[in-house]
Design brief:
This protein is mainly beta. It is built from 8 helices and 63 strands. Among the domains are: 145-218, no CATH class; 222-341, no CATH class; 402-570 and 670-675, no CATH class; 686-790, no CATH class; 798-893, no CATH class.
Length: 925
Amino acid sequence: MWQAASTDSTAVVGPDFNLEDWTLIPAKDLTGVDRTMGLYVAGVDQPGLDLPLLIDGVNYPGVQVYGNYFTGTTPEDAAYASSFTDTTLGQTYSSINVDGGEFIGLYEGHAPEELVNGAEFDTLDMRVYTRPGADWNRDGHGFQLADLRYQYNAAVTNVFSWAGLVDNPVGIFVTNTTTNLPLSLNIDYTVNWILQTITLLTVANGNIISIAAFEIGGGSQLYRTNIVGNDTNTTIIPVNAAEIIDLAIFVNGAPVSGASWDPYIDSTDWNQLNSYSKLDVVNSTDGSTMETYYRALRDVPAGIDIANATYWIEFTPTLESIVDLGAVYTNTDAIALTAFGVTTIDAGYFVIGRQYTITQVGTTNFVAIGAGANTIGTVFTASGVGSGTGTASTVYGWSVPQTQYIIADSNFVTFKSTTLTNSVQGSNLANMIVTRNGLRLQPPEGREWISDGSSLAYSLPTRGGYSQAIVNATTDVIVWVDNILQQQSIGGVPGVYSVTPYVSANDRDVVFNVAPPVGARILITVTTQAGYQLAGTTLQIVGGVNLNDLFAVTTFNDTSQQYPLTLVFNGPVITGVVEQDPFDPLPNEAAYNNQPGSFDYATVNNTQWSFDYSVGTAVYDNQFWLERAGVNAARLWVTLDGYALTNSIDYSVEGEYLILASGAIQPNQIMAITEVTDSIVPDAMAFRIFQDMRGVQATYRITHETTTTLTQSLTADADIAYVEDALALGQPNLDIGVFGVCTIDGERIMYRSINAANNTLSGLMRGTAGTAAADHDTGTAVYDLSRGNLLQSDYQDYIVSDTSLGDGSTTVFYAPSITPGDFVDSASEAPAIEVYVAGIRQYAYSDTTATSQYRWFVTDFDPLAVDFVVDDTAYPPLLPPVPNVEVTILVRQGVTWYQQGATTPSDGIALQDTDTVAARFLRGL
């Protein structure tokens, strides 16, 4: 290559090449572009000497602006440049206007030559939404709860907020932690469900109250939402109607029934006199109450019948459902709605890990109940904690504490019984919370066991403070296995277990005929000392009942995924050597005063021969063993002699034991503890993968805390956006070149200013990163796309590569940066390797489906070595990379967001349950 001898090229005159006019340039001094222009020689089937074809980025295939040919001193027609120090540059999409060709026209549209002229849109905004889901881990699907506490000051207010405690509340509990008594709805307090506040009615000034809010637990949850009534009986939810098997609806904290659902899509009422455009959707009742939907296959002239298959196609919407709430609710009604789905069971067998219920342990004749399944004689063999065996159903119901209040009338006083309206299915009998005038009645005593698959005998509970000799095995012992009531063998009635007779202290067992399967939960309950009994739905009080006594009965609806366990402790564990009333040997009365019958016992307490005299030291130790590890103290119901105790004030949990702040209880004091699973239903989560026109890809989380809505419509050319909560969005910092970023519908918007007082975003840059400026309606979601929501690059896909230069003879090239340990073995590593020569991908010798100038194979993995094939006889010949050409060896790597299994990329836990850094970040933690 040559360069003009004079700096201004004035020596170059005429078409002849004269050596005195030119200076030879060494190849080492050339730029990459110059080398390409001067030295490139196209081979067979290779591009010609055209820089845009050889070097990426040389030519921009968009709207191109040309100036003069610089033949003189005439200035350029247009210049576009910025150092980005002007923060008002491009404030609107109309800031820079270029008068050029059409965006998509006969000559301006860009696409591969073999395709029809068109346009390519490279920006991708993919949003991923998860559901709360089912109990994937089979460790319980508990209800979420959270609480806060206030000190009541009558001079300030009697209204207290519980807003924001949980995202989707369905109910609350209120407790006076000063008196250790629960408060009763509409007696001690009222609730404003819309504002999420309570108003105290009877609490003494200075007392501390605790408000606990609950979400719904249990089932396979597809969607949940909280809405306000709007004088209609319907609402739209983003769930396929075919996936829904049940709806749980709570209105102002109380469950309601009568809801139904149908497929739905936004449509217009069909009218044969109207014309329609292609893809328009209409609905027609066809004389029935259920709407039938049709989509236009082409433009439809007026007068075409809806049954004309040339123009219309009937279809069932799959993205949304319309829910009939069963009643009309107003803006004073707070509605909590949860849609439940089912996991399909294929006929003839069960799937390990899916949701099942059992009837009786030891039977071998079962009925599979599921979509399309009704197979008798199927033997269940699934394993895992709580799996069980027996009649299978994929349907689990909802669960959340529900309280029924009963004021004792004369009939209740006489018969001491009442009918419960809330569900008492499952093990509610053993775990329900029954209070009289605020004090919990002594519940049945429970003991939990996890089957080892071989043991038949499991002991009764032993801390109730009574002799097992008084336990009536027929009426007092109740057993559940995986939440299913088991039949006891009584008299001539066969069952699956029996109870051993009393011989000595604490030796009675439940003995199964056949061992429950490995991991099955066995709950043994003894009702001997309980303050109530339950027969069907009839609650029978054991003690006396007074007129106007207030009873509150809290049950949990479906207990199958809550693993409730109620423990009863009568007094502490007493250790030490103590001899009570050591009267013997009594003194010889005759020897005492030589008069028969004249001996007198001591009249001073705690002296020898007094009634209460004892010798030795007793040590009291509570030993409140919870029978489970890792118990969350905030999820316990704890009472002492009926009074409710408060977490972190009255008790704490250390290891597997509950620790009472007041120390050891006294003999005959009753401690009752009810536990539920600590594995709660996860919140639905969402994230987005955003890739701009340059191919730069980033993942952003979508959270409630960083999402707001438009309070006014936003036109495509507006410079101010009005939002509900500006503080939910990221703060711009123009001093360091950081703009605020958000998305509305499909548009990415950057903003320069944020006003928290007025809740506005201003200085907008519209339609950035390849998106288009558009109009947006009031109420549209505004998502924060700032760096605070950006998943760190360590969890994005990335490339590991090494580059070296060819010399025309070297065939082996190394990539020491690629670590063999990142792959399972060489079989998985070789297919992942990519090799590029001069920026063009070259394919492995073994890949016979692809063509490339060079061919290679892997010769070693430590370090990774790639050997290029040399074959002069091939056509075209296979040669080593030519001199000074870049040879790049790379692998594309990613980082899993999931918890990895021992031999798998994931241990099967859903992302919303995964505890990795990436998963926690995406959940907003």
